[in-house]
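[READ THE FOLD]
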Amino acid sequence: MKKIGHRKSNIEKARAFTLIELLVVIAVIAVIAGFTVSALNGVKRTQFRRTASGELEQIAAALDSYKAKYGFYPPANTNNFLLPPLYYELSGVTNNGAYFVTLDGSSRIPISNPGNDVQAAYGVAGFVNCTKGSGEDAVLAKNFLPGLKPNRYFYPVTNNNVPTTVLVTSVRGPDSGYAPLLAVDVNPFRYRYPGVNNPGSYDLWIKLLISGKTYLICNWSRQVQINSPLP
């Protein structure tokens, strides 16, 4: 009888030890899961920044090509640097008398309705990168952003009551609460020429809101700035 009681006691101890082990394992898994989620969030933040930075570099390259052709950079929006005319200037347009139409036909803006809509929207009389003339004397506009994906531009944005198209980042806010143009998931590239941070050329930047923190990606600093006051 004593032997049986002894065996039972050992079994109970073994069961108790197994339960403790299980609790320890669960605690370890929880800790690992916490580290994993944190690491994944960090990877996602990095991915957002790298994507937006690559898109900014693509626009910067197009701006340099534009300058190589025309001798200067595209004009900025004198009314609002959040809504520059970059999409039209870098995509190239034609003038059919009623509308400026981008070379790929994806967007158009009225020339007059009844006033000059381009003047109202951007503070300029027209677009520089526009086909002029016809036949052998024609000066053809050029698309400096060939193959631009649909998630890289947005229409319509109301620009001083004029529906226009703007260049945006594909990563969106990415926080859904960040809507600088009061449109969901629309985050435009900002442009200023002449630049303030780059007086000899232009300022180009994008602001991301990730998990409540702002990240400024710009062409005057290689380092991503966190919680910058710029809009």
